[in-house]
Amino acid sequence: MLPIAASTYAPRIDLLFWLMVGISGAIILLVVTLLVWFSFKYRRGTKAKRGALMTRFTREVEITWTVATFFTFIFLFWWGAAVLVATVPIPKHAMEIHVVAKQWMWKIEHPDGQREIDALHLPLGVPVKLVMTSQDVIHSFFVPAFRVKQDVLPGRYTELNFTPDKVGTFPLYCAEYCGTDHSRMTGGVVVMAPGAYARWSQGQPQGDSLAAQGKVLFTRLGCAGCHVNSETVHAPDLFGIYGKPQPMTGGGFRIADEGYLRDSIMLPRQDVVAGYAPIMPSYQGVASEEDVVKLIAYLKQPGGSTPR
Questions:
Q1: Are the beta carbons of 154 and 133 closer than 8 angstroms?
Q2: Where would I find the H helices in the chain?
């Protein structure tokens, strides 16, 4: 029995699943039926006609079942790819929530500063975009009711998007073995009616938004000492950098997405912007993954970090 379907994505996954079960069942039934029939028809002592196989008939059978298998595979591959690709576009108005996984908990922060551990509250019918990274080892964010699962990797950002369409509390699991207490790395996704979610949100301790916290870190960690127009240090301008291609020393470009910004903070000499010396120090051991999330949220703001 499948778990309850609670996202707009789930019915398509279920349909594909049952189609594959149906095709597999039909093939098994055909093979078993032929096996039983031939076992009785050609058992010892029967008067069934025996002799050499007809070469032409055998060749046609071989070609038929090979071609049928090939096109069935292509059809299922196409359908599965189409279902997967349909989840790639992220609505522009999606609610962006940041998730940091660590042994053995899910640390979640909402855009307005609300924080949760092993729980995620969401409004019904609102597209959600999760931006996820790991603080230690590989984890996997898995919500069976939504039919979504995404690996969460250290040193990288992965994204997951879905739209919940049922009110309720749905189990959240880590689906990648991550150490001693892996089985205890669970939680719950609570989907609420919009009004109930608004009341819950207002009732939470109100902290600064991720971007506001990132702004404080931008100054405290010394980023403003180089990346503002008033400074004499020759460093890249961060004004409106997010989402734009950056020319690299040695040729080529990189899009300034979450992954690029993280690498620029933690591994600044990995990809150096053309025209600049590799003088920025690494912030590994200085800034945590949660700090990096906040800095990136600040840099992603319209207008970036540097006032003109």
A1: yes
A2: 10-41, 55-85, 194-203, 210-220, 258-266, 289-299
Residue 218: closest CA among 120, 130, 291: 291
Average pLDDT, the chain: 83
Q: Which amino acid is residue 81, in one-letter code? A: A
C-alpha–C-alpha distance, residues 88 and 121, integer Å: 23
Q: List C-alpha distances in Å: 197 to 95, 151, 200, 203, 244.
A: 13, 27, 5, 10, 34
| Eight-class DSSP state of 108 | E
Q: Which of 65-74, 167-176, 207-216, 294-303 has the highest mean pLDDT?
A: 167-176
- The strand ranges marked E within 82-231 are 95-102, 105-109, 115-117, 119-123, 128-134, 139-143, 148-152, 158-162, 168-174, 186-192
Q: Are strands 148-152 and 115-117 parallel, antiparallel or unpaired?
A: unpaired
Per-residue pLDDT, 307? 47
Q: What is the pTM of this model?
A: 0.71
- β-strand 253-255 against 245-247: which pairing, if any? antiparallel
Cβ contacts of 163 within 8 Å, gap of 6 or more: 7, 8, 9, 125, 126, 127, 128
Q: What's the pLDDT at 231?
A: 59
Reported as a single tens digit per residue, the pLDDT across 104-137 is 899 998 877 788 899 999 999 899 989 898 988 9
HSE (CB half, 13 Å, CA atoms) of 219? 6
Strands 158-162 and 245-247: unpaired
Q: Name all domains of the chain by residue range, CATH numbers in brackets.
A: 10-85 (no CATH), 95-203 (2.60.40.420), 210-299 (1.10.760.10)
